[in-house]
Every structure is written in C-alpha cells, then in structure tokens.
Amino acid sequence: MTEPKIYVAGHRGMVGSAIVRRLFAVGCSESALLCRSHKEFDLTNQLEVKRFFEQEKPDQVYLAAAKVGGIHANNTYPAEFIYQNLMIEANVIDAAYRYGVEKLLFLGSSCIYPKLAVQPMREDALLTGQLEPTNEPYAIAKIAGIKLCESYNRQYGADYRSVMPSNLYGPGDNYHPDNSHVIPALIRRFHEAKIANAHSVAIWGSGSPRREFLYVDDMAAACVHVMNLDKARYDQHTQPMLSHINVGTGQDLTIKELAGDIAETIGFGGSIEFDASKPDGAPRKLMDSSRLGSLGWKPGTTLKEGLKLAYQDFLKYHV
C-alpha cells in the first residue's frame, strides 16, 4: 500500500511542528511529508495555493497555519486576524477539494464558543451566544473554517474534519513580549524578573479568570488520532452541521494559580501583582472533551510536566 502524501500547513508554527513530530513518531517517512515555508508560497494567495496543490497533489492535509496571538494582539490587529485566517482556510480547503485531497483536518480554537457559554463548553454551544469581543474577528474566522469543512462535506462528499483545542503551550511557542499567549508571556516575564532579581511581577487582569491548558504535543497526538479515525466512526459521533471535536484536558485553573505554578517552575521568589484595570477576557473557558474521549483519546501530559518542558524549550531557543 502506497504511503499517503501529507501536507502540514504551518509546519514551522507551534502546532504544525508538533504535528510533524507526531507523524514521524508514528512512522511517517520524510519523503511522504510535504512542508513549505511562507517564503516558498503564501497561503493567503489563491493562485499560489492552487499551484502547490496542482503540483504536489497531497492525499491528506493538516491545516495548522493561522495568524494567532493573545488579547493584546487581537485587540491591536483585528483586521489582520480576520482577513488572513479567512483567506488561508478558504484557499486551502477549496484547493483540497479541487485537487482530490482524501482527508483534511482543520484546527480551530476554543474562542469559537460564546463568552458566557455554559461550562464546560460542549460542541453544541457553537453559535448560541455573543463571542468574547477581544478576539471576535479571530473567532469568526475559525467558525467559518468549521463551516467551510462541513459545507464541502455536505455538498461534495468530502472528508474534512475539525478539532478545537483549548489553550495550547509548549515547544515552538511565541514568546514575543506583546503578542504572545498567557503561558509563554508569563514564562518570559518571570524568567526576566528572576534574572534581574526583581521584587515583583505585574500581570494583566484580576487573575480570577479560569483557563484550560493543553500541551502542544498532546494536541498533535489528538490531531493524528482524529485524522486516522474510520470515517464511519467519526460520523457516528458527529453531525453534518455540528462536526467539530473539542480537544482538552477537562481541567482548568485560575490565572492567579497558573502564575504561581509558572513562578515555581522558573524559580522566581518575588511577589505577583495583578492589574485589574486591564481586560480579563472571558471569565471561564473549560471545554467538554468527552466526545473525543469516546473516540479513544486522552491527554498524557500534566500541566506541571508541560510547564517544565516549555521552560526548557524557552531556555534552549529564546535566551
């Protein structure tokens, strides 16, 4: 049996690189893997995307490419977040259909759910309420990606699947001082405070919001698991217009508790101060991942283990 050609869009990003690691771990050969950098072709350019699919004709696609960032980045660049993500997913999903891709996996985000969704958030909470304003453009784009997959499935009989991870962290994360997510931002801040012998670290928000975090290599394992599920089994646990699957740990904690865990991991002994004048975002974001559990997958990395691995990665590549 011929090994399928697998295209990982966004292979240099945190999620994409973890998917590549997972594919190699389960036996994918280097020759079967298609990876292209942004310099080689631009996923927001429809002609370039079509040319790539026409030439390479991948059998499977992991759509992990996206413009991502934390609250500050989403507030500062809303037009870029909605435009670039819409263009990437529309170009790749349409090209996948037109050039005969057998399976596609679209990666979304937990921000697709309403700000005040019932906790833990089930898949059927989608489109039941107002989104969190600070990242609404990004969320709208991710919802559109889910609906693109479902629409091509319904009209053309495609096999395009969607997974929605909780907050991700780990190797390959973005540690930019302004545009990063909460865990990498805090790792950098506490590390710099430790080096500077600072007495305190200030953190945006009240510290009271609760968040769920998933180690990125666990997410990658879940992606490969979902991609390789028999179609009949996947369809049995989903619906044509409610087909996405949550991927999380089922456990959350407050930002204050998270900050304490990161400070302990890094060895910062000073005080932690919270600036309640800054936005908190949604009060809680815990996902119900029981659908994925019924499909035979569960995470394998605890938060404390993951934070240690993430800090090791930071020290290796960002110091």
Considering the chains and any ligands shown, give keywords for the structure.
single chain, three-stranded mixed β-sheet, six-stranded parallel β-sheet, globular, alpha/beta, 11 helices, 14% strand, 319 residues, 42% helix
Description:
- The protein is of the alpha/beta class and 319 residues long.
- The protein is 42% helix and 14% strand.
- The chain is built from eleven helices and 13 strands.
- The protein has a six-stranded parallel beta sheet, with helices on both faces. Strands 11-8-13 form a three-stranded mixed beta sheet. A two-stranded parallel sheet has the order 6-9.
- The chain is globular, with a radius of gyration of 19 Å.
- The termini are far apart.
Strand content: 5-15%
Q: Quote the distance from N terminus to C terminus.
A: 46 Å
Number of helices: 11
- Share of residues in helices: 40-55%
| Topology as a string of helices (H) and strands (E) | EHEHEHHEHEEHEEEHHEEHEEHH
Show the helix and strand layout.
Elements lengths: L5 E4 L4 H12 L7 E2 L11 H11 L3 E4 L7 H6 L1 H21 L4 E5 L28 H21 L3 E6 L1 E3 L12 H14 L4 E5 L5 E2 L1 E3 H12 L3 H6 L8 E3 L5 E2 H12 L4 E5 L8 E2 L4 H5 L8 H15 L2
Parallel strand pairs: 1-2, 1-3, 3-4, 4-5, 5-10, 6-9, 7-12, 8-13
Antiparallel strand pairs: 8-11
Short description, anyone?
Helices cover 42% and strands 14% of the residues.
